[in-house]
Write a structure and sequence with these properties.
Shape: globular
CATH class of the largest domain: Alpha Beta
Strand content: 15-25%
CATH topology of the largest domain: Dihydrodipicolinate Reductase, domain 2
Radius of gyration: 23 Å
Largest sheet: 8 strands, mixed
Number of helices: 15
Order of helices and strands: HEHEHEHEHEHEHEHHHHHEEEEEEEHHH
CATH superfamily of the largest domain: Dihydrodipicolinate Reductase, domain 2
CATH architecture of the largest domain: 2-Layer Sandwich
Structural class: alpha/beta
Strand order of the largest sheet: 8-9-10-7-11-12-13-14
Number of domains: 2
């Protein structure tokens, strides 16, 4: 064989390999849904239409009526639906599952997927107990799969803008963070019966408003404090509407203390209007995020060093792939984004569950939980 012919054959082989890699990269990522009892699944199904890089290959849900409901409302073929996660995984071989079960069932869903090297994105929070959070962390490490936690507030441009300004020193070192998240209550806003049934169950949801809305602020605080455990956790809960929510709290306040900062997190099912905003106080200025609604979360109210009065700004749009959960998940699965120390990452969310668990114990006992010391002694 002549040298020229050899070079041509090598070139042809490399070109074919390159084409194969490009074709693989252009293939849509295969994802499956586990559970339909979490109402946020509706947002994912709506968003899927504008994300051709994602292909929905299966949905598992044991409730026949719920499967039929979503098949009709989302115009999905019956062939997508399975009564069990195991049957769906065996038949569809997804690259990731999106978990829309109760919070307490996240671990079980991941225990089936992780050994098959299937990644997972769950709805907030990661788990209801520290034991479950640590078990999920162990599964991720053992099988080398990403486990992500999705919060609506992760995709708010003003939250990222406030964090960026704090990090670049615009308002000095963080001194106090106050986070407000809540609405009138899940029953009052009309969530579906399959959603409400576990939201008001302390085993399946972890608590009431304390977990459902407190988790947003704990996630943001953990991000702002670079994953640091608080020195202490104190929490109080109220039962303002026992006739509606007999088994869980409907109002909560969590206070976290750090060496040089304090965080106050208010989560409620008792507010007259929806809120998902925060106040960030630095040593030399402050930034408030302004909540209008879920699609208009880009306004800031701030006063910087040297300014006589506060002013308003519009936060810049988030850049892809960190602008919505589907784009983010696709980037992680393609290997172009490594989730670490951010709002969605596993390390952040194990810390979130530790803090929520301490808050629940504090509210139940009336005691302050010295969390960083407690965790250090447990190692």
């Amino acid at each position: 064989m002549t040298p020229i012919r050899t070079r041509l054959l090598v070139f042809a082989a490399l070109s074919a390999l390159s084409l194969t890699h490009r074709a693989a990269a252009q293939q849509p990522i295969r994802v499956a849904i586990v559970g339909l009892v979490h109402g946020h699944v509706q947002g994912f199904l709506r968003g899927l239409q504008s994300h051709p890089e994602i292909q929905l290959v299966g949905i598992s849900e044991p409730d026949t009526a719920l499967r039929e409901k979503y098949a009709a409302s989302a115009h999905l073929p019956a062939s997508l639906f399975f009564p069990t996660e195991a049957a769906m995984l065996q038949s569809t071989h997804p690259q990731a599952i999106l978990v829309y079960t109760s919070i307490a069932n996240h671990r079980a869903a991941i225990e089936q997927a992780a050994p098959l090297h299937i990644a997972a994105m769950v709805e907030k929070p990661l788990a209801t107990t520290v034991d479950d959070a640590l078990a999920i962390q162990s599964l991720a490490a053992k099988y080398h799969v990403p486990i992500l936690t999705n919060y609506e507030t992760t995709w708010y441009a003003n939250n990222t803008a406030a964090h960026t300004m704090l990090e670049d020193g615009s308002i000095g070192d963080l001194r106090k963070l106050v986070v407000h998240d809540g609405h009138r209550g899940p029953q009052e806003i009309g969530v579906g019966p399959e959603f409400l049934s576990w939201l008001v169950d302390p085993k399946l949801n972890g608590a009431g408003a304390l977990f459902d809305f407190g988790c947003y602020g704990v996630d943001l605080a953990t991000w702002f404090l670079h994953g640091e455990l608080p020195l202490s956790v104190s929490a109080t809960t109220l039962h303002i509407k026992p006739q509606i929510y007999p088994n869980v709290d409907d109002d909560s306040t969590i206070v976290l203390t750090y060496p040089h900062a304090q965080v106050i997190i208010q989560g409620s099912w008792n507010w007259p209007f929806d809120r998902k905003d925060m106040e960030v106080y630095g040593a030399r200025g402050y930034i408030d995020t302004v909540y209008v609604d879920t699609t208009h979360a880009d306004q800031l109210r701030l006063r910087l060093p040297g300014e006589a009065v506060e002013h308003r700004e519009t936060a810049p749009p988030l850049a892809a792939p960190q602008n919505d959960p589907i784009s983010y998940l696709a980037a992680v699965l393609k290997g172009s984004l490594q989730p670490q120390h951010d709002l969605t990452s596993l390390d952040t969310n194990v810390t979130v569950v530790r803090i929520l668990d301490a808050a629940r114990r504090s509210a139940q006992t009336g005691r302050t939980i010295y969390l960083s010391e407690e965790v250090q002694h447990s190692k």
